[in-house]
Design brief:
The complex is a heterodimer.
Chain A: E1 2-11, E2 14-21, E3 30-35, H1 41-53, E4 61-63, E5 66-68, H2 85-90, E6 95-104, E7 107-117, E8 128-136, E9 142-143, H3 144-154, E10 164-166, H4 170-178, H5 186-192, H6 195-270, H7 274-306, H8 309-355, H9 370-394, H10 399-411, H11 418-449, H12 452-500, H13 507-549, E11 556-561, E12 567-571, H14 582-600, E13 606-609, H15 617-627, E14 635-640, H16 646-652, E15 657-664, E16 682-685, E17 690-693, E18 699-701, E19 708-711
Helix pairs in contact in A: 4-14, 6-12, 6-13, 7-11, 8-9, 8-10, 13-14
Chain B: H1 2-17, H2 22-34, H3 44-58
Helix pairs in contact in B: 1-2, 2-3
Chain lengths: ~725, ~60
């Protein structure tokens, strides 16, 4: 892949849009940006990282043998920001973008990342809309996450460190490579060797197997349940058959009984004309029995009522005598009461006569006509005694006698309704007797019409019919029960058959699971053996690069890479260089990085910021001699003027250097910097701090901090 | 890519010992290498494709 254009807009000191054209007619690999500090070397380096990965980090640190990345630089806000300060302060909207255009095996690759403020004045990155668009070859444009995936398919972020090499961090790389800690560059080395493919692949396969296992277990469970249900269904089928046999047997029994019943009915039909007579006879028998019972009761009643018949007969005569005695008794009682009263009157009068003194009890004076009064009392007494005598003589029967006689008569007195009841019971008995005789007469008449044999036959048939009806009812009930059992068994069978279904073992999943398991074993075994072989490969390539880069290849013969990818410089004596110079160490580091880059196999340019920081002149030259070739991967350096001078680089690497640029501020120029002019005829206005070209009228302010990109004429 | 060849040859060597076909092993490794830098959280579709590749070789 070759980078063809880099377009920067409002990033760092690059105000406005700057198009850096990297296309050349030659296939040379050398590209260089020369600049003093703050002119934007590292900005270009960071702009490309931001464009590809969405962030630009500050320099990292080594902590306990492990590199810790620097913090991500904000696009806008306070402090050191990515966006051009003037654009941030004055533009509306605030906008910054970087576009990379390259040519690769897939055709033209165009990556554009833009940051645009979503508010009037964005104070931090959350107020910026970031957009990423990628076009590869003739494919449609992708954006966002998909676009990021496209980028990382040809420029993996994990391998960034082997393409964006920071010269100022070479010592950190070296420290990691020499560290006893197994951390160091482990992740990067693994990434280069394709180990993530195996590790993540193994994880992927484990997850796939988990899903498959769950599916297989579920299917196995279903198959087990299905098999069990099938067994149960078979047993249920046998049970159903038994139930069907029972039902069939009951059906046959019912049919047999029904057949016999039919025969009985036919036989009974033969005696159909006798049937009413027989029925009548039966009815008569019943009625006769009833009547006989009634008659017996009536007879008993009649006998019971007849027991007092003699009283009724006697009373017809005795009742007159009883009436007379009763009258006498009444009369005697009246006479008794008169005698008693008269006696009381006599006693009272006698007492009055005795009690008369002739003196008033109240006033004590003698009463007048006392003798006359006494005479009157004696007269009354005599009158009463006569009445008494007459009354006593009139008493013929004594009351006691009358009471005894009346009592004797009372014993033979019947109850008032006795006679009627006797007559009624007699009438009832006679009526029942007549009814009975009438029924018997009817029976005799019927018996004359129906023979005893016929009666007996019909009776037997009737009895048989009754028994058969009972039997049919019983058999019908049994058949219904049997059919109910069959129905229940059928339903259970249906349920079990549904459960048994058509579930079969998921053979495809089992086979897939088995294959995945084998691939996992292959991955595990590959990881064990491949690492050592890969280490040999890295060691070999790093040694090749190192021999070309160092200035004493006959003394420093190669690089040793141990199993943890720690590195040492090997010397011609077969040992390791104990105290190599800083330049030699930097060469070792660059050799290993480039060996790993080669091993990664990825086709991408290499960017080296401040490449010669820790190298002496000879090594700096050899570094460029190695990387700047007539063909191959582009190698872009971002060199400080102290590391490489433009003139020296151009002179020493003519033919290998495809293109070069200087990055300057306007104030760095005291002659017209316009490529087509370059006049020395300029005027300086000290008050305005600005130059004016007298040839082309170009004006530039010496205070300006806006970078000018000028291509070096080679 | 020299190193990919080494990785591939090792993977195929070990895979064949498991009775797997070279074509299957190549396709699986190509897929894994192509997608090796995707983080775990974004590998659902990669896994689905991986399963599809293996299934294709089992048919």
């Amino acid at each position: 892949m070759r980078l063809t254009h880099l377009i920067l807009s409002n990033i760092g000191p690059f105000r406005g849009t700057h198009i850096i054209d990297l296309t050349t007619p030659s296939a040379s690999t050398g590209y260089a940006f020369f600049a003093k500090n703050t002119r934007g070397k590292t900005t270009i380096y960071n702009a490309m990282r931001w464009c590809l990965f969405g962030e630009a980090r500050g320099r990292g640190k080594i902590i306990n043998g492990k590199r810790v990345d620097g913090s991500s630089r904000p696009i806008v806000g306070d402090g050191e920001i990515l966006m051009n300060d003037d654009a941030y302060d004055n533009d509306d909207p605030q906008e910054m973008s970087v576009m990379l255009i390259a040519e690769g095996l897939s055709g033209k690759i165009q990556v554009t990342r833009t940051a645009k403020s979503s508010t009037k004045f964005a104070r931090n990155d959350s107020e910026m809309d970031i957009r990423l668009d990628v076009i590869i070859g003739s494919n449609p444009m992708t954006s966002g996450k998909e676009a990021q995936k496209e980028i990382e398919s040809f420029f993996p972020r994990e391998l960034e460190r082997f393409f964006f090499i920071d010269g100022e961090s070479l010592e950190d790389y070296t420290e990691m490579m020499e560290s006893n800690s197994i951390e160091g560059l482990q992740d990067e080395v693994n990434a280069v060797l394709g180990i993530p493919a195996l590790v993540k692949g193994s994880d992927d396969l484990t997850l796939l197997r988990q899903t498959l296992k769950s599916k297989i277990d579920k299917t196995s469970k279903a198959v087990k349940q299905s098999t069990s249900a099938r067994d149960n269904a078979l047993a249920q089928k046998r049970l159903l058959q038994e139930k069907l046999n029972v039902a069939s047997e009951k059906q046959k029994q019912l049919q047999t009984v029904a057949g016999k019943f039919e025969e009985t009915l036919k036989k009974m039909h033969v005696h159909q004309e006798l049937a009413p007579l027989i029925e009548e006879l039966k009815s008569l028998d019943t009625q006769i029995l009833l009547k006989e019972a009634n008659l017996l009761e009536a007879a008993k009643e009649k006998v019971s009522e007849s027991k007092v018949a003699w009283k009724v007969l006697l009373w017809t005569q005795a009742s007159k005598f009883h009436s007379e005695l009763s009258a006498q008794k009444k009369k005697s009682d009246d006479s008794e009461r008169s005698i008693e009263k008269t006696r009381e009157d006599i006693e009272r009068i006698k007492k009055n006569i005795e009690d008369v003194t002739g003196i008033c009890e109240e006033c004590g004076q003698p009463l007048p006509n006392i003798e006359k009064y006494k005479m009157k009392l004696k007269s009354e007494l005599s009158e009463r005694e006569e009445i008494l005598e007459r009354l006593e003589k009139s008493q013929i029967h004594s009351p006691d006698d009358l009471i005894i006689k009346l009592g004797e008569l009372q014993k033979i007195k019947p109850q008032a309704d006795s006679k009627e009841r006797i007559i009624k019971s007699e009438a009832k008995w006679k009526r029942l007797s007549n009814d009975l005789e009438s029924l018997r007469e009817q029976k005799r008449n019927l018996n004359a019409k129906v023979s005893e044999e016929a009666i007996s036959s019909v009776a037997e048939l009737g009895e048989l019919k009754g028994r058969q009806e009972t039997m049919i009812a019983t058999r019908t009930k049994e058949l219904q029960e049997a059919r109910k059992d069959v129905k229940v068994a059928e339903l259970e069978l249906t349920r079990l058959e549904r459960l048994s279904g058509n579930t079969t073992q998921d053979k495809a999943s089992i086979q897939l699971n088995s294959t995945i398991s084998k691939i996992q074993v292959a991955i595990k075994n590959t990881m064990s053996s491949y690492r050592e072989k890969a280490r040999n490969e890295v060691e070999m390539r790093a040694s090749e690069v190192f021999v070309r880069l160092n200035n004493m290849p006959e003394v420093y013969t190669g690089i040793s890479v141990d199993k943890n990818f720690r590195t040492k410089i090997r010397n011609s004596k077969g040992g390791f260089e104990r105290k190599p110079s800083s330049g030699l160490t930097s060469m070792m580091t660059i050799s290993v990085l480039d060996a790993l880059r080669q091993v990664s196999g990825l086709d991408a340019p290499v960017f080296l910021d401040t490449p010669g920081r820790s190298l002496d002149e000879e090594h700096k030259k050899e570094l460029l001699d190695y990387f700047w070739q007539t063909e191959g991967h582009q190698f872009l350096i971002f060199a400080h003027s102290g590391e490489y001078t433009v003139e020296q680089a151009v002179q020493e690497h003519k033919g290998m250097l495809a293109k070069a640029w200087t990055l300057t501020f306007p104030g760095d120029h005291s002659t017209c910097y316009k490529a087509a002019c370059q006049s020395h005829d300029v005027l300086y206005d000290a008050a305005k701090k600005q130059y004016t070209c007298q040839q082309c009228d170009l004006i530039w302010n010496t205070d300006s901090k806006e970078t000018i990109v000028l291509e070096v004429e080679l | 890519m020299a190193d990919d060849e080494l990785l591939t040859s090792e993977f195929i060597r070990h895979g064949k010992k498991q009775g797997l076909s070279e074509a299957l092993l190549r396709d699986v490794l190509d897929h894994l290498l192509k997608n090796q830098f995707y983080p775990a959280g974004e590998r659902a579709s990669i896994r689905a494709d991986l399963q599809r590749i293996i299934k294709l070789h089992l048919e």
